Structure formats: structure tokens, C-alpha cells
From TrEMBL:
The gene is trpB. PROSITE patterns: TRP_SYNTHASE_BETA. The keyword Cytoplasm does not apply. Gene3D superfamilies: 3.40.50.1100. This is Tryptophan synthase beta chain. It comes from Spiribacter vilamensis. Its EC number is 4.2.1.20. It comes from the Bacteria. Residues 78-415 form the Tryptophan synthase beta chain-like PALP domain.
Amino acid sequence: MDETVKITLPESDIPRYWYNINADLPAPLAPVLRPDNYEPVGPDDLAPIFPNAVIEQEMSTEREVEIPEPVRDAYRQWRPSPLYRARRLEKALGTPARIYYKYEGVSPAGSHKPNTAIPQAFYNKAEGVKRITTETGAGQWGSSLALAGAMFDLDIEVFMVKVSFNQKPYRRAFMESFGASCIASPSDTTAAGRAVLAEQPDATGSLGIAISEAVELAAQRDDTKYALGSVLNHVLLHQTVSGLETMRQLEQVDDYPDKVIGCTGGGSNFAGVAFPFLGERLRGGPATEFIAVEPAACPTLTQGKFAYDWGDTGHLTPLTKMHTLGSAFMPPGFHAGGLRYHGMAPLISHLTDLGYIAPRAYGQLDCFAAGLTFARAEGIIPAPEANHAVKATIDEAIACRESGESKALLFNLCGHGHFDMQAYTDYLAGKLEAETGPSAEQSMALSGLPGV
């Protein structure tokens, strides 16, 4: 009997193309709109903040987009990442389910985020950009772009959501070690930040505010562009390198997932593992189920409205149709900082609306409990964000135990929790709160949606 635990691929099997699910959508995405006249945006509208190659990928409907060789060469530092069969977790749960997890925590930054940070840095460098501004929540994206900036000799300026800036000092140190600067947001560096501080001097920040600050600075200088770590089409495209590898790895053990699970804040890691399999379903392949898991305190997919909204709090971005809690929504400071965003990727929102993705929300106490169950069985402490996917996977495995079904469950373990030990310390000491859905704040924020 095959007892394989770690399923690997050689460097030669790093994918040569990213997969673009836009080519297989049963209905096209709603267009991105200019906020001044509600007309569809064109390349010229995006040129002040993105390089041309990224704009082309954002608007592409080609099924395969070639990965440049310098990007594949950088990927070789950690890709292909391993796929694990969670045999010890299966035994601990007493489940007949076959549990697999793609482990993206082996990257130099400890998460899946370098999968898009590397190509975005490459494209900016190729077009003569000197500096990139960005935002970060928990610090995973800021860490990854700092790493990419060092690889391609770019100055990186990161606006980090203030509550995470204070919670996670080692993430700040990581960014600064690679030469990036890290600023707590909201800050007095930008007009957008000063406007928030004028109204709320003690504001703990949000990804929407940090995006406003980063976009504002990028638009002011010709040598500066902006980079986003989730939500947008080109980001989700770059992340599919993970799911494409997973397909080859599962072929080695002659298996295929019945369910694919990922945590969702903006949608990048869920899309990375799920979209290649979802594309096969859209083309007539197996009827795999897809579960997107979010925090109950920021329930974008499960409680948000599918509508046009700004991607940032300062209303500097175009309007996209997505599941949203409202651009003014200020999430509470729960520890999964990478999932504290008011909106969701338009592609994931669209596919959820069409019924291909089933969203689910959990509270942070349940997620930390699941993370420790996983860690004590598998030996890897997950990031707080990844704990949401772990929780859903454990629930599905227990359902298999109760039904007697042996289903294949695949989830993306998108990062390790080595920079998040204070969160685990607080959980073990009983100091974490049981966050609930923010109904009053949510209603207020949704009242400010644009009248499209």
C-alpha cells in the first residue's frame, strides 16, 4: 500500500504558463468602471499606477499566459512547492477522507504571496520603474514584495494596517531587512491618511485606507507604480502556478479532489489552488466542489452585497463589481490580518454569484482551535489566515467520518504562523475574543455604495 506523505516535482516541472480562468467563464465579468462617468476603464486609465504588461494581463481573456524565464528562474528558489497527504491528521480525526494540502509556507517570505510579487516586480523593472508602493494587512504581502524588490533592485514602500503594524513587529523587521520601508496606516504621509486621522485620530486602519495611501503616492511620480497583492485578475492569474503544480502532483498518486478549500480575504490564495480545477469543471470535467472560507468578523462573501464599489476607502480606484461590505467598513482587529478587506476579488465574486463557489464564515476561536489540531498532527503551525481553510477541511473530514465516505479534500496551506506566535499565545491564554459579524458597521458602510 502506498503510504506517500510528501509529493514533490522537479524544478523542470515548474509551469511555463499561468492559467487564466477568464477564458472559461460561462458569463463574462462585469466591466471595471471609471468613477466619474461610469464608463468602462481602458488601459490609459490604469497606466499611471500599473506597468503595461500587468494591464494587459488584467484585461486578458487568453487561457494561457506565458511565465517569463526570469520569473521562473526566481520561482526555482522554492517552487515547485510540496503537496502533502495529511495522513497523521486523517488518523487523529478517524476519517476515511483523503486530505491533501499544498504548502506555500516554504517560500522565502513564508507564504504564497511571492508567486505574484516576483512577476509584478519583474514587469515593473522591465519598464524602467524605480519604486513600488503597496499596502499590507498581516504583512505577508509586504514581506513578499520587499523580497521581490531586493531581487530586482526596486525601492519598496509599504503601508501596513496600523493594528497589524503594532501586532506583528517581526513582519516589519522582515520588510526592512530586505530594504523596504514600512509605514503604519493611516499615516500623515498622504492626504488620504491625514483625512482619516482628522476624523478618527485613534483609527486602527484597514486595507482600504492603506490602498488609498499607496495609490496616492504612486500617482504622484512617473518613476513609481503601485502593486496589489490580491483581488485583481492578474494577481489571481499569477497564483495559479500553485494549482497547476498540484494537478501534476495528484496525478502521481492517481487522485483528484472532490472538494477544494481555501481561505479568502481578497481571494488570491483560494484562486491559486482552486482555479485550475474549477477551469476543468467549467470545461466539462469532474464536478469538484469549491469552498471559500472567510472570517465571521469580515464576512464579505457570506453577508456582503454583490455590487459596484471602490477598492479603497479614499475612492481613488475604479469601481469593480464584487461582494463588498462597503469601502468605509473598518474591520475589527482580529489576528487574521490578511483577511480584513471590505471587498472580494471580482472573479471570485462572479463565480460565487454563478453558484460555482460555496462561501463559509468562521469565528477566530474555532479557527485557532482547528489550527492547533492540525499543528499537533502535521507538525506545521499555520498562519491565522490559513486556519480558516484548516477549520473547513476538518469539518468536511468529520462529515466523511460520519457518512463513511472517502472523499479527497484539498486545501491550500498558504503560509506558516512563525510570525504570528503572539496570536497563538493570546489564544492559549484565553485572551482572544469570539468575534461576531459586524451588522451595524456593515449596514452603515453599505449605505455609501456608488449609485451604479
